[in-house]
Automatic annotation (TrEMBL), chain A:
Keywords: Acetoin catabolism. One of its GO terms (molecular function) is histone deacetylase activity. Residues 21-318 form the Histone deacetylase domain. This is Acetoin utilization protein AcuC. It holds the Pfam family Hist_deacetyl. Pathway: Ketone degradation; acetoin degradation. Belongs to the histone deacetylase family. InterPro entries: AcuC, HDACs, His_deacetylse_dom, His_deacetylse_dom_sf, Ureohydrolase_dom_sf. GO terms for biological process: acetoin catabolic process; epigenetic regulation of gene expression.
TrEMBL record, chain B:
The keyword DNA-binding does not apply. Residues 68-127 form the CBS domain. SUPFAM superfamilies: ACT-like, CBS-domain pair. CDD domains: ACT_AcuB. PANTHER family: CBS DOMAIN-CONTAINING PROTEIN, CBS DOMAIN-CONTAINING PROTEIN CBSX3, MITOCHONDRIAL. PROSITE patterns: ACT, CBS. Residues 129-199 form the ACT domain. This is Acetoin utilization protein AcuB. Keywords: CBS domain.
Length: 387, 199
């Protein structure tokens, strides 16, 4: 039962807005292929997803919104009404069968959750999921149905456990934070680029939850051009302290890979070093507090050739306790070099000189340190009080 | 935006004839920090804070009417919210009672005032922020907005900032998109300076 499981089928790639849209699920296939070619993914570890039912999607979303998504996917929703639901916009244009495409992704993440919660495995990976911007009644930031929020609510109701959600996408995990903002059984931790310029603009340190959920929402907004060292310091320190404070029963991680310096949509400067380290710490935390229970999803990631396949493959490698270095498999490079518009990296790791040095590094590091201290202030003062 | 749109309604009330001792008891059940004082005809007479009540002596002849603040700055529900923020700033106030025809119908605290100003900037809605430096002359806002329109992107809010010099201004747009790159490219092509994070 200790073998980690990988949720995959080709119909998860149907979540596709149009050819020039930055969100491209080909990255899931690229990752799957990379793991296959490197000999780290056997067929026995791959589980086909199920499709989520409307009732399951309604754990988070309004019925009216689901109906609108269905109609938009059939081309029978007027543009005025679509706009009210965030559909038919530049970010989430309508496409044929969009409801089904979204429901399969939700189903994939629910499949991962059931496998973990029923003890069939300790770790499960649903890379097509992690669509953390979706709101109750509105599509946002390339996300239609918020599988991250749905899976958390699903686990809470079906298994009655407390969930720690850890979001390391470069964008704030707003949809998930607001869905559980007043809930003390779900703790959300999001590390992201500050909303000073970047979408969605929220995720400030002072967003701590409300009502009985006050003190169960944590945000670490880091400065633009943050590099590996400072990003990892913020991630590791916050995750260790929040996990120790909350003592979760299960961990759900959203592993957006868009903080990389190559990512076109964000302004951060991390490299593969960060994507090697983060899932390994997540596993350590799951093993320490949750008997290993860890459900991991994908998320953002818009350099689908040079960044996402290696970054996401590392989640699977971490789940299996494997460390890769050296060259990428020649078979994978040969196959995909023909398709890629950019030159593919040859090695698992990045060389440190892939970006020009950041002149403001000391200032950025100091600012992030200050932010981190503010994020963890409540936990640290509680700890001091209790000795 | 009007004061009635931002105020908290249902302010907890004490009759001016209530004793401090009784008020102390009653206050324990409430989570409010500020209480209105009314006469028997429900006419507003003044305000007391939780701290005023806690500090007040519990003698037999000490009533709400003895400890309430009476000489206060108030506002009308139809005053503008922007104007109210000026009143807060100039008078160093913590809160302002909202009075209509002798009745208290709401309260605006400093915290709500600040939250209102944040809402006016559009910062609570998912958006990417774009800061564009333009020449300080008529029509610039319309020209930039027309470019954004070409990309079919909804504008959540707009602010116009003065620059340090008189020759320029900064337009701040909050756009409902996660991918502002095509708009930024377009604006750059048209010769506008789009400000971004500094390395």
């Amino acid at each position: 039962m200790n073998e980690p499981l990988f949720i995959y089928s080709e119909n998860l790639l149907d979540y596709k807005f149009h050819d020039s849209h930055p969100f491209n699920q080909l990255r899931v296939k690229l990752t799957y292929d990379l793991l296959k070619a490197s000999g780290h993914l056997s067929d026995t570890s791959v589980v086909k997803p199920r499709k989520a039912s409307d009732e399951e999607i309604m754990l988070i979303h309004d019925k009216g919104y689901i109906e609108a998504v269905k109609k938009a996917g059939e081309g029978s929703l007027s543009s005025d009404i679509a706009g009210n639901y965030g559909l038919g916009t530049e970010d989430t244009p309508s496409f044929k069968g969009m409801h089904d495409a979204g429901a399969w992704i939700v189903g994939a993440t629910l499949t991962a959750a059931d496998l973990v919660m029923e003890g069939k495995t300790k770790h499960a990976l649903s890379l097509s999921g992690g669509l953390h911007h979706g709101f109750r009644g509105k599509a946002s930031g390339f996300c239609i149905y918020n599988d991250s929020s749905i899976v958390i609510e699903y686990i809470r109701r079906k298994y009655g456990v407390r969930v720690l959600y850890v979001d390391s996408d470069a964008h704030h995990g707003d949809g998930v934070q607001w869905a559980f903002y007043d809930d003390s059984d779900v703790c959300t931790l999001s590390i992201h680029e500050t909303g000073r310029y970047l979408f969605p603009g929220t995720g400030n340190v002072h967003e701590k939850g409300q009502g009985s959920g006050y003190g169960f929402s944590f945000n670490v907004p880091v400065d633009a051009f943050t590099e590996d060292e400072s990003w990892l310091h913020c991630y590791e320190t916050s995750l260790l302290e929040v996990a120790d404070y909350f003592k979760p029963d299960v961990i759900v991680t959203q592993n957006g890979a868009d903080a990389h310096c190559y990512d076109p949509l964000t302004h951060l400067s991390v490299t593969m070093k960060t994507y090697e380290a983060m899932p390994r710490l997540a596993k350590k935390i799951a093993d320490r507090y949750c008997g290993g229970r860890w459900i991991a999803t994908g998320g953002g990631g818009y350099d689908i050739w040079r960044v996402v396949p290696r970054a996401w493959a590392n989640i699977w490698l971490a789940m299996n306790g494997i460390q890769e270095s050296g060259n990428l498999p020649a078979e994978w490079l040969a196959k995909w070099s023909r398709e890629s518009p950019v030159e593919l990296p040859r090695t698992w790791s990045d060389s440190p000189d892939i970006y020009t040095p950041i002149p403001r590094k000391p200032e950025i590091t100091a600012k992030n340190e200050d932010t981190l201290a503010k994020t963890l202030y409540s936990i640290r003062s509680l700890k001091k009080k209790n000795g | 935006m009007l004061v009635k749109d931002i105020m908290a309604a249902n302010v907890p009330v004490f009759k001016i004839s209530v004793s401090v001792a009784a008020a102390k008891q009653e206050m324990m059940k409430q989570s409010s920090r500020y209480f209105a004082a009314e006469d028997n005809d429900r006419r507003w007479k003044g305000m007391v804070s939780d701290i005023d009540i806690k500090k007040a002596e519990e003698s037999e002849d000490n009533f709400i009417s003895d400890i309430m603040k009476t000489d206060m700055i108030t506002a009308h529900p139809l005053d503008s919210a922007e104007e109210l923020s000026g009143v807060f700033y100039q008078n160093n106030l913590e809160y302002i009672p909202i009075i209509e025809e002798d009745r208290i119908i709401g309260l605006v605290t400093e915290k709500e005032m600040l939250h209102t100003l944040v809402r006016l900037t559009g910062a609570h809605q998912p958006s990417s922020k774009l800061e564009i430096k333009v020449i300080n002359k008529a029509g610039q806002l319309a020209e930039v907005a027309a470019i954004i329109k070409e990309h079919h992107i909804n504008i959540q809010s707009v602010l116009v900032y003065p620059c340090q010099n008189d020759e320029e201004k900064v337009l701040v747009f909050r756009l409902a998109t996660m991918n502002p790159l095509p708009v930024i490219q377009h604006l750059n092509d048209e010769g506008y300076t789009v400000l971004g994070p500094v390395r």
